[in-house]
Amino acid sequence: MPDFEYTKTVEHLFTHCLIAYPSVAFSSDNPMKDDYNKDCITTNEFKKILNSLYKNNYCIVDINSVYKEKDGTIVKNSVKVPVGKKALVLSFDDVNYDHKKMGFGMVDKIILDENGNLATCTTINGKQEISYDNEFVTILENFVKLHPDFSPFGAKGTINVTGYDGVLGYRTQSKNKKNREQEIEKAKVVIKKLKNSGWNFASHSYGHYHMKKLNDIEFLEEVNLWKTEVEPLVGKTGIYVYPYGEWEVFDNLGNISKKHQYLIDAGFKVFCGVGMKTFYDYLPNKNKNKVLFMDRKVVDGNTLRKKDTNLYPFFDPSNVYDYAVRPSV
Ligand SMILES: [Zn+2]
After folding, report:
1. How confident is the model at residue 288 (pLDDT cuts 50, 70, 90)?
2. If you average pLDDT over every residue of the chain, what do you get?
């Protein structure tokens, strides 16, 4: 079937790393259980969401295909999708598997198995478990194998990483004086495989700070840490995903702020916030420099539980919500 030019706004949904072991994550022994219940979804919920997105004729496009550079400015780019399909970007935040979270129901890291296939590795009850079915990477890989038209051009998701505790479960940060070089080598192999499989990476800052709480100098240090520690691993990316969806693009006079200029100078071109309404457009400023901004709809325990109406075009939250494993709130 011929592809056609998609004229509607490309939708963008995001969630966090999945809850792979709900009985551990929601156990009273997990001090973060309320946060997990709020901010995360389970593997079963994610699978139901994928099924529903597919039934509702969404297909995944690469976030890097929705913009282009024209005469030195960043402009929207229309994407093509097969007839009858709707364009969607999926992204996943905080994919570092923070060591503080280890053992509380998420996987420990993304790995390649001995055959070079993507998998996850987790120590659970003292034993190492390799799985192909308990994190968004492998679940989406499996889903696209089954339904290739969910990803007509081979795109998978956008992996939004920070750097303060490494990436993908590898302690690549400069503060790791123990085995940093080995961790970097391991991470690079996994990143290469992910990119070859259609995944791409975005910056979610280095330290996951509140942007507005940092002064300009502290913020520049943040950006530089990304450039020196994370970009060499995941490669250059034009996509910046604000931690906490907290953004500061303009100064008090309505001009581009210093912090935003640092991000532009670092090569970022599309800026992603958090919002339940569909928004992918230019933020205007006094000097007519326009900033391309994309909001992302949150898919987490909270929005599922609240049955946020903005999710209904994609899936019915009450059919997705995992009542059997989630503690009542
Ligand atoms: Zn985050």
Report:
1. confident
2. 96
Expressed in angstroms and rounded, the spacing between residue 204 Cα and the centre of ligand 1 is 7
* 207 CA distance to ligand 1 middle (Å): 10
Report CA(328)–ligand 1 centroid distance (Å). Answer: 24
Joined tokens for residue 12: 């963008």
Question: H or E segment at 13?
Answer: strand 11-16
Ligand 1 center to residue 100 CA distance, Å? 15
DSSP letter string over 230-288?
IHHHH---SEEE-GGG----B-TTSSBPHHHHHHHHTT--EEEEE-SS--EEEEP-TT-
Number of H helices, E strands in the chain: 10, 16
Structural domains of the chain, with CATH: 3-320 (3.20.20.370)
- Percent of the chain at pLDDT exceeding 90: 93
Predicted TM-score (pTM) of the model is 0.97
Alpha carbon of 284 to ligand 1 centroid (Å): 26
pLDDT at 193 over 90: yes
Q: What tokens appear for 293 in the block?
A: 């901004």
Q: How far is CA 43 from CA 186, 240, 296, in A?
A: 25, 26, 20
CB atoms near residue 195 (< 10 Å)? 15
Residue list, CB under 5 A from ion ligand 1: 93-94, 243
Q: Cα(285) to centroid of ligand 1, in Å?
A: 27
What is the structure's pLDDT at 4? 87
